[in-house]
Amino acid sequence: xxxxITDRKIDGIFISHxxxxxxxxxxxxxxxxxxxIGKTALEIQNTIFDFISKDKKIVPEKVLENEIPIHIKxxxxxxxxxxxxxxxxxxxxxxxxxxxxxxxxxxxxHGEKGNLTDxxxxxxxxxxxxxxxxxxxxxxxxDYVAExxxxxxxxxxxFMKKIKxxxxxxQSAANIDRIEQIYKASKKANRTLLIDVFTAHI
Length: 202
Description:
The chain has six helices and eight strands. It has 202 residues and is an alpha/beta fold. The chain has a five-stranded mixed β-sheet. The chain has a three-stranded parallel β-sheet with strand order 1-2-3.
């Protein structure tokens, strides 16, 4: 498939997860270029499009599955599930001509699925790549330690037990792990959790 700005062919676009800085230019993708994305990430993103009145939806060539390789001409791309605030996020192992490129995606280790990131880092396939492409959100934050999701959940529970009256939580509706923590905190604090229509659809 041709690109509008180069004569080189585009054989596929792999979407690691559905945060705006990774998927925000989707609408500029020419029709016919194959797109690969996780099944749940696809459902979440197309639901978001429903609510922001976007006519264009993602119709993938194939959905990503953990450690199931996808072959495109001479390339083999293997997705690996990782922990991230965006649900159904992937890192990629890209292989061609005996060379190996690792793209980490946006990863973390402090979420409910931190073991996924650890498993990927320790996987035999991920060792000694020729090129490592790594995200760097917190690379310049010296001595930065992120709070674990379950700790945030415990703090939310304590706050809910301490405060009388209604409590409003402002967060991304697509951050499923955080919603789970708020739900658990509400239940333990004997509170009723009400969510908006958009979050309910997500």
